[in-house]
Amino acid sequence: MPGNGKPMEKQETIVPVLAGIIENADGRILLTRRKPHLSNAGKWEFPGGKLRPGEQPPACLQRELREELGIDVRVNDPFEIVNFTYDRGHILLIAYRCQYRGGTIRMVDHDRYEWVRPEDLLKYDLSAADIPIAQKLVAIHTGR
C-alpha cells in the first residue's frame, strides 16, 4: 500500500515500441502501411517494433527493420516520445531519426511503402500514435 493508506490500483502495462524516421539521400521519409489483418490495419506508420526485455533501443530498431523490411539503417538520436493508449493497450512510442543504409525493401507486416517529402506526411492516414511525430517533422521542415 502506498503511504496514503489506499490500496494500489492495478497498473496498466506499458509496451515500449520503437519507430524509425528513416530518411533517404533525397531527404524523403519512409512510411509503411499495415496489412489489413493486423492491428491498425490500413494505417500508415513510421516502421519499427516492440522493444524486447534487455534489448538496447538502437539494436532493437535495427533488428526490427531488418526483419520486417529487409533494410539496414543507422540509428541516430531519439526524436520524439509519444505516450498513447489504443483500445488494445498502452504504448510508449519512441521515434528515432535514422539514415537508410541499404537493402531492398520487402513487405512482412506491411502491404505498401512510400518515400514521402516531410511536408506531405500529414496527408497520409497515419496510426494515431504516429501523428504527433509527423506533426513535429512537418513543423521543422515548413517552419510552422
Brief digest:
The protein is built from 2 helices and 7 strands; from the N terminus they run E-E-E-E-H-E-E-E-H. It is of the alpha+beta class and 144 residues long. It is globular.
Textual characterization of the structure:
It is built from 2 helices and 7 strands; from the N terminus they run E-E-E-E-H-E-E-E-H. The termini are far apart. It is globular and about 45 Å long. It is an alpha+beta fold and 144 residues long. It has a single domain (14-142), classed as Nucleoside Triphosphate Pyrophosphohydrolase (Alpha-Beta Complex), CATH 3.90.79.
Low-confidence stretches: none
- What's the shape? globular
- Lateral arrangement of strands in the main beta sheet: 4-1-6-5
Report the β-strand fraction as a percent range.
35-45%
CATH fold title: Nucleoside Triphosphate Pyrophosphohydrolase
Rg on CA atoms, Å: 16 Å
Sheet with the most strands, sense and barrel status: 4 strands, mixed
The CATH homology group name: Nucleoside Triphosphate Pyrophosphohydrolase
In percent, how helical is the residue content? Answer: 10-25%
For this structure, the quaternary state is: single chain
H/E element order? EEEEHEEEH
Q: Count of helical segments? A: 2
Computed structural class: alpha+beta
The appropriate CATH architecture is Alpha-Beta Complex
Distance between the termini: 47 Å
Q: Overall pLDDT, averaged?
A: 89
Return the domain count. 1
Please report the total strand number as a whole number: 7
Main CATH class = Alpha Beta
